[in-house]
Design a protein that fits this description.
single chain, 196 residues, 5 strands, 63% helix
Length: 196
C-alpha cells in the first residue's frame, strides 16, 4: 500500500540522510563506511517495522469501525422493532405439525379466524382495545377455528392465548416487520409442533 504524505516525507528525508552518509563515508576509511552501512541498515529496518505496525493498527481501526457501524445498525433496528411492538398485536397460527395437510389446514384456520375477528376489531383504536376484544371472545375464536378443522376432517383441539412470541423478519405487502418479540394472538392447533 502506498504511504501517506507524512510517511513519504519521512522516507524522503531518510533517503537524503542516507545519501549524505554514503557521500561522506566514501571519503574515509573502509571501517567507517561499514559503520555507516550498518547504521543505514538498522534505520531502514526500523522504518519497515514501524510501517508494519501502522498497517496492523490500520487493520484494527477498520475492524473497529465495522463493529461500531454494525452495532449502531442493530441498535437502530432494535429501536424500530421496539416501537412497532408497542403498537401492534400480531397473529400467529401454529399448525399441528409440518405435515403438508396440517400446514394447508392451518392457512384455512388463519383465514377463518381473521374473518371472525374483522367485524369485532372494527371499533378498536389501539392494541389494548384489540386485546380486550380477544379476551372477551376467546371461546368464539376457538369455536371458529375448530369448526373449520372439523369441516376439513380434522379432530384436533385448538388453544387460544395472547403472549409474547419471537417473529423473524416478515413482509406484508409494503410493510416489513423487523425480527424480534411481539405480543400476539396465538392459535395453536393440536400439538402445535409446526415450525411455520
Amino acid at each position: 500500500a502506498p504511504p501517506n504524505h507524512s510517511e513519504v516525507a519521512i522516507f524522503a528525508k531518510n533517503e537524503r540522510i542516507s545519501n549524505g552518509l554514503k557521500d561522506f563515508g566514501s571519503t574515509v576509511c573502509g571501517e567507517i563506511r561499514v559503520s555507516f552501512s550498518i547504521n543505514e541498515y538498522f534505520w531502514r529496518f526500523f522504518m519497515r517495522v514501524n510501517f508494519k505496525k501502522e498497517l496492523v493498527l490500520l487493520g484494527i481501526f477498520i475492524v473497529a469501525v465495522f463493529c461500531v457501524c454494525g452495532n449502531y445498525r442493530r441498535m437502530k433496528n432494535d429501536s424500530i422493532q421496539s416501537d412497532i411492538a408497542k403498537k401492534i398485536l400480531r397473529f400467529h397460527v401454529i399448525a399441528n405439525s409440518d405435515n403438508v395437510n396440517d400446514q394447508n389446514v392451518k392457512l384455512k384456520v388463519r383465514d377463518g379466524v381473521l374473518d371472525y375477528l374483522e367485524p369485532l376489531f372494527s371499533e378498536c383504536e389501539d392494541k389494548e382495545d384489540c386485546k380486550d376484544v380477544i379476551s372477551q371472545n376467546v371461546e368464539g375464536i376457538k369455536s371458529a377455528a375448530e369448526e373449520i378443522l372439523r369441516s376439513e376432517g380434522f379432530d384436533e383441539n385448538v388453544n387460544i392465548s395472547v403472549g409474547t412470541r419471537y417473529f423473524p423478519v416478515k413482509k406484508y405487502g409494503d410493510y416489513t416487520f423487523p425480527q424480534g418479540e411481539y405480543e400476539a394472538l396465538c392459535v395453536e392447533i393440536g400439538k402445535a409442533e409446526g415450525k411455520n
